[in-house]
Each structure stands twice: as structure tokens, then as C-alpha cells.
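WARN retry 2 of 3 for item q-0093 after timeout on previous attempt; input resubmitted unchanged.
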Amino acid sequence: MQGGWARRGAAAALLVVTLAAAPALADTSAADSREAFVTVMGVVSPYATFGLLKHLSGIPGVASVTFDLAHGIADVHLRPGASVTDQQFRDAIRSASYTAGDIRRKSETSENLPGGR
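OK item q-0093 returned
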């Protein structure tokens, strides 16, 4: 029985849940997109990610959100020209009953530089 739980835990740790807003289907080339990496503390199960993703994707200007459960990091893609503040991320995460940690941004220009980030 312990092996089954260990496999389930490993599978859950590798799970990446994706929620994309419908407008994200529009052309969002790498040159146009912006990205933020938001550390979220307290998410322990795949089921728990759904509310978090719903809150983050509800921020005006957010195109799509993925969550890496193993590392506790939300990868948030913004629509071209959108501006989302760190406080908006923190408020959405708090509304989902979690705590925001570090917020790092990847700008359009950094994607074209050697090393990417």
C-alpha cells in the first residue's frame, strides 16, 4: 500500500495544471507576450490548484496561467499591452486562500537576449 501512495505523491508532484482564458487563443507570439513567475505557498494538492488558477486567470490582462505543483510556481502569461501589478497577483492569491511569495517578471526584450531570462 505504501508504494501506491508514493506513486500517487510523485504523480501529483509532477502535475502541471493549465487554465487558459478563451482570448488566449488569439495570436500571442513570443515577441508580444509578457510573463510573470509567482511563487505560491501552501498549495499541496492538484485539486487545490483549481481555485488558485481561477483567481489568477480572473485578473484583467491575464491570458493564461499554469501551475507547477512540485515547485509552487504559477507561470502567468499576460496579454500584449496588459499591465498587472504585483499587488493584483497578491490579492488574487490571497482571495484563493494562499500566500504569495516572490514575483519575477520576464519582459518582451529579455526573451530575445542570450540566456532568455
